Each structure stands twice: as structure tokens, then as C-alpha cells.
Amino acid sequence: MQRLNHRSFGSCEIGFPLRGVFWSLLALFLASQLLPGLMTSVLADGPVVQAKTAPAPAKGQPSVVLITLDGLPATFLRDPAVSLPNLRRLAQQGVAAEGMVVANPSVTWPNHTTLITGVYPATHGVLFNGVLQRPGLGLPPKTEAKKDGRELVAVPTLFDFAKQAGLATAGINWPCTRNIESVDDNMPDVPEFFESSTPGLINDLKQNQILTEELIKNFYKYSGTIRDDMWTAAATYIIRHRMPQFMTIHLLNVDGVHHKYGPRTPGGDAAVAYIDTCLGRILDAIESSGNAGNTTIIVTADHGFISIPQSIRPNVKLKQAGLLTTSGNRVDSARAYAIPEGGIAMVFLTVPESKASDRQKVVELFKDSEGISSILQPAEFATYGLPDPADHPGMADLILVAKDGYGFSAVATGDETIVESDTTLGTHGFLSTNPKMNAILVMAGRGIRTGASFGTENSPGIVRNVDVAPTIAHLLKLKLPQTDGRILTEVLSPQE
After folding, report:
1. pTM of the entire structure?
2. Which residues form the domain of 410?
């Protein structure tokens, strides 16, 4: 595999127009966010001290590294105005999809779980970035992120099957993996994740000065750029010094910046350019690991992104209809309550005795409302890979679907039901039938045919994210007993 040098980040060879204004904005953006955290990446290649319990490296054995660049739409790869030199070069060495259809809801935790299970949320059970909790009848539900992986995911994952086969595993900032014993080196995507990370890995990172007590103490006070820098440094350390046979890496900053500023904005473009340098560092680490020739690299995302100049406040409308009460900024009671997931809102009816009539009230309330595209009933959920509320305690009773340009807000105070977006100018969560939710997918390395084409005769260039897990399982000679996807044989080498 040709070495991918992340130092080519600013080169002209990929056809990226070197616009002075853009690069000035990029430099200012990165300088303002990154300088306090630069030492993480610099020290990642320093003297090596390893824990005695570290997993054996996978040199000479097949490895798969699955990398997600959270919130990177499929269209960015072919847009010459978007700086992605490392990702594009990887695509030239392997294969890139026109788009990857994601799962519903098109949010982070459900889709990361689909990527490593090969099944839709109706089966694996993850519907939010956390677990839904119902405090009681007539009270608004909420989500809780501080949960173990086994409390979140209802089926075995690739980590479990890899571990059963005796393979070394690692996960960096991967959702729904807290306290999962099948991840040897684990830094899960969960609040207070340092406490939930593998102690041996944390010790190694401290001894090699990749982690400091100051960084640990103030981690969530730093920008997403610095957090991605640290996760990249941790990932490259593992790859260089004990390359696992199955590894997942989740980089998050693009999603956060796209939420704040929207996609294809100066801030968003700068975040994308920076994440490509992180990818370059990971690719360089793989090249120097001694196992590059045996490694398959998969780079993908969990969803696309849409700009939302308008914000819908369904809970204000429910309050005005007498289905919800508030005091101050608190919701005191709710016969109906909407939890937003970007382009959809999950509506929960909390009182069994009035559920039928409350359902009809909600439908009448929103069917002709501004910004509402459709209202999904339980009979339609299976079509979108979602469970019936009778089968899953965390599933909503109704789903409101927003039109393009609108997103949902949880705000229940005030009287305005539609407001101009101010703090959130971009979102996802729209139904996966919206092509703007399609994510990138690039595969290269061992077992991948350079220049092959994804897709079938009926959908050329398009794949589904449920296809990723069965393809990884095939590459690692693992068996997935249950899957909604298929092995992407059209891009695999004949010997595979």
C-alpha cells in the first residue's frame, strides 16, 4: 500500500483551489483551537513504555481498522472545494462509494452500533445517544448516556466475535462500548470516559506523555479539535506499538462544528481539513506498524448533514394544546413529550388511559404545521428499520419528520413554535431516505480491489451501512449469525 503522508495536507496535487481567504480562516481556526493540545501529537512518537498486560501485536495477521469521521457527508469526497487529500488518496488506492445509506435514526450511537453489528436499530436496540428513561406516568422521558455497552446493545458485536476467535481488539471513542470486556484497549465514547477506559492503556499513554493529568482534568473544557487530537494520538500509539486485528476509531469534531456553523461554512471546512490531517496520522501509523500489507482500512461516517435556518419547538405546541405543563424552564408534566433527534422528533405518549385520544390530538396538532413533512405511526416504523413501541421500551409512539431547512428543538418555554436557528445551524437525524444523510465510505488495503465499484445493478455506487459489519467479518474470517446486510463482494479481491 502506498504510504499516505499527512504532510501533503495543503498540496495542490488533489486539485483543491488554494483560496487565500479560506486558508487564512483555516489557520486562524486551527490556531485558536489547537495550540494548547499540540503536544499530544508531537509526543505520540516519543519513547515507548508498554504495560505488561498489553495485547500481542497482530504483525503478519489480517487486521481491519474501521475509522468514522463523524458527520462527513458522502458528497464531500467529490467536491473539489473540500480539502480531503488523505481521504482522496486512500480512495484512489482502493474504492469509494457514491454514498452509504445510514440507519434510522441517523444519529451517532445508533449508526456506530449498526456499523459493528450489521443490523438495524430495530434489532440492536440503540435509538438515541443513550438509553431512554421513563420517570413515571405523565412525566417527560429523558435519555441517559452513562450506561454500559451491555445495557445499550441487545446483540453481539464484531468485538465479541473477534474476541471469541482470539483476535486482539481496540476501540477509541467508540459509542456503546463502556465496560465491554471484548475490547482489549478501550477508550469508550461516554461521559467521564477516562474512568471507563482500559487501565493499562491509560497508564501507557501517561507514561509516554500522550496523556497528562491536566489534559484528563480539563478534557471536556477543550475544543473538539484538541479532543480529536488526543484520540488520534491514542490510536496511533496503539497501532504503532501493538497493532490489533480489529480496531475502531471515532473522530468527532466535524460533527460538533457542523452543528454550530452548518456544513460548507468556513468553520465547517476548516474542521474537515483538520480531520483529514488526523486521518493522515493514522494512515502513517499503519504504514509504520509493520503490518500495513495485511491491513484493510475502512473510512466512513455515521450520517450526513443539512443546514437548518429554522428550528421547530414541538413541546411549545404541546404545551399550548394542554398536553404538557411547565414551570420556569422545567417541564413538570407531559401526556405527550417530544425528544428531538435533529431532523426527526420522537413523541412519547406517557399516560396509557389517554394514549389513543392523545395520539389523535398530536396528529391533528402537527399535520398541517409549518416545517413538518410527515408524521410516522408505529405501523410504518419497520419500513425504516425501527422497532414497534410494543417491543421496545425506548421507542416513541409517533415520529415527527421535518422538512429540509428545519430541525427540532427540545425547548418547551415561551410561545414561539418556529424560531430562527441561532446556536445550531446544522443537523442530521433526518430519515435515511433523504440522500443528504448519506455518509462517505472508502475501503483500501488488504483484500480490496483498487478501482472496483460499489453497489448492485439496481443501485450502482450506493451501499448500506448494514453491509459494513458482514464485510469486516468476512475479511477477518468471522461468522455473523444475524445480519441485515450483505458482504460487499463486488469490491473484494478474488482470493477473498
Report:
1. 0.90
2. 310-423
